[in-house]
Amino acid sequence: MVQQFSEIGDIMDDFANPAVPLNGAQKSPVLVIIEHHVLARTCILNILKRELAGFEFVELATTSGLNWLAGRDVRLITLHTGDKRITDPSIEDSLALIAEYCPNAYVALLSNRDDDATASAAMQRGVRGFFPTSIPLEVAIAGLRLVLAGGVYRPLAIFGQSDPSNLNTISEYNGAPELPALHAGNGATMIVPEQTMVDLTPREQHVLEALKLGLPNKLIAVKLKLSENTVKMHIQHIMRKCSAHNRTEAVLRWSQRLSGHNGHARSRLPPS
């Protein structure tokens, strides 16, 4: 009898959580909407169901339910960050959970903030779409289609364009931005001699690539499947080998070494 009640309870949990298919088989790719407010979440859900066919839609109030989606074919996760900055600990934790449970999913942020700093911080953390709530609906839908196709969306209005409804605000992803040169105090470019630096190990190079994106230690740990303590150790080694005082200086110094060595600021990562 106890076992029967336990089995009934498991079935009821499946009904209560839309992320879990009852028949154990799910062929459609999944699109997840994470929005705390029920009314807003329902409106977004209905719009996306009408505009984006061929997906199973899962709505969640917070990222705490993402563990139900582990192993599913999640293509896109939309997360509403409200008025919070990307550096807010709750947003960092949410992005870490997404990376942990849905590592192959594209991430799109819906934000009440439309400043360049917020958009840049989002992109540096691997977000593929940044959608201020001030943009028109048709532009947002077009941007989501681009993200689903493997591109990156960021409104040019953030860079000072006058018309946020211009579809030219959609841009393809061309990789991480080039790093600036390291400058001396007198304004001259300072090239760090190659012989002053010790070669990085393959794992240290992977950590360095993550540092270039501005990822915090927690996200680097998730991305590379390492502990945070191991990440900190690698960063300390990188800083020592680059004779740098902080992580930003380490990235700049290593970039300058590569630029002086082969004329190109980006290195090819060795296999993991």
UniProtKB/TrEMBL annotation:
Domain HTH luxR-type intervals: 193-258
UniProt xrefs under Pfam families: GerE
Gene Ontology MF annotations: DNA binding
SMART domains: HTH_LUXR
Domain of life: Bacteria
GO BP term, pick one: regulation of DNA-templated transcription
Keywords: DNA-binding
Name of the molecule in the record: DNA-binding response regulator, NarL/FixJ family, contains REC and HTH domains
Source organism (scientific name): Bradyrhizobium lablabi
